[in-house]
User: Which sequence fits this backbone?
């Protein structure tokens, strides 16, 4: 059974940082691209970042470029998202998802999400 | 910036067939497959349709997808109360590799 479990979300002050994690099981992690998608309160889904199977290729939404860093540790079956210089508009539930391909594709499986709240 | 446009809301009665549209500037939708996700409040999104018209295993055949030109559609036939959810389309754009539509809230009356 494919499972994705996010963690690391928290209440953080503006300007703060967090590292979100997504631990996966049930599939060969190193063979698939992974992605982060967020949903702000009352808003729709917003793609954030994607990383290829080996980690050599990354993509970022313009809204987080230079602020967020995606990475993965294939030996630990874990995906990460380092989020820095947080702003109120970064408040959202952050979902990790497995893509259908090694670099691109659609989201086949999703985690339950981790909540990041940016507030003073 | 590329934008996928969905109607913010849709509604139908049990047993009815409804469609949700997703439109975007050509050639992006025309050049790339469109995927659809179902999302319930507080729950993870679920893949409903991929590659414009393919259904993952386990998705009822009441759900179907199509694409024509710069527009895609999700159809739900035999509408059921448990279909009440938010629906999102998604595709590619060269400037923004993954783009989601704004979402459509489906109400079953």
Assistant:
């Amino acid at each position: 059974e494919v499972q994705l479990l996010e963690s690391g979300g928290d209440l953080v002050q503006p300007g703060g940082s967090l590292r979100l994690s997504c631990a996966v099981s049930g599939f060969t992690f190193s063979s698939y691209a992974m992605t982060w998608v967020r949903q702000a309160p009352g808003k729709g889904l917003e793609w954030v970042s994607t990383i290829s199977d080996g980690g050599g290729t990354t993509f970022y939404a313009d809204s987080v470029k230079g602020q967020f860093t995606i990475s993965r540790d294939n030996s630990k079956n874990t995906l990460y998202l380092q989020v820095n210089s947080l702003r109120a508009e970064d408040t959202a539930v952050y979902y990790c998802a497995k893509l259908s391909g090694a670099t691109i594709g659609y989201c086949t499986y999703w985690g339950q999400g981790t909540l990041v709240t940016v507030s003073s | 910036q590329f934008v996928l446009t969905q109607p913010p809301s849709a509604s139908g009665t049990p047993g009815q067939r409804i469609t949700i549209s997703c439109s975007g500037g050509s050639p992006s939708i025309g050049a790339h497959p469109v995927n659809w996700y179902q999302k319930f409040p507080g729950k993870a999104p679920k893949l409903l349709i991929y590659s414009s018209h393919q259904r993952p295993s386990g998705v009822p055949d009441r759900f179907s997808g199509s694409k024509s030109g710069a527009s895609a559609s999700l159809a739900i036939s035999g509408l059921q109360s448990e279909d009440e959810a938010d629906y999102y389309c998604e595709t590619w754009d060269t400037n923004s590799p993954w783009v989601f539509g704004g979402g459509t809230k489906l109400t079953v009356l």
Summary: Chain A touches chain B through 22 residues (CB under 8 Å). Chain A is about 0% helix and 50% strand.
